Amino acid sequence: MNTLINHIIEQLLEIQNGKIWIGSSYESKLRSIDDNLVFVRPTKDLHSIAEIISHLTLWRNEAILKIKTGAGSKTDDCEENWLTNEKLKEKGWARIKSEYDHTLTELIALLKEKDDSFLKEEYYDTDFKGDYEYRFLLHGMLHHDIYHLGQLGLIIKHLK
């Protein structure tokens, strides 16, 4: 039975492009802003939209790696965690957004292969330096996505 896995998949999709109780989804927010503003930091202490999307992509890729191999490779202080706008501009917004979208598709495809018992299996978390159940990882990904969705809302308000 996959009730819990299916619920996690449903939440990931709703946060990305659904109608969610807390407000706008990622797709809705990203459609509301001109592409020429995605590299702008509204204040020196706020990240740009591109920085946040790149950051989310890194951690989604890390979750995919953990699911595939049972261990991660990144820590919170790794350079790729918060790439500079200069590096991100070289990559380009279309590629940043495409990579972000691809990671969701890949994560969901991996989860569809699992059943609920997978959530109790353990992986080694490089960042937290210990063994954790996959439930911890996937719930953390949802929390992380929602946290940064709120940040995007504030950044977009500042940019408009």
TrEMBL record:
Ranges of residues in domain DinB-like: 30-152
InterPro entries the record matches: DinB-like, DinB/YfiT-like
Any single Pfam family the record assigns to this protein: DinB_2
Signal sequence, start to end: none
Gene3D superfamilies assigned to the protein according to its UniProt record, in alphabetical order: dinb family like domain
Entry protein name: DinB family protein
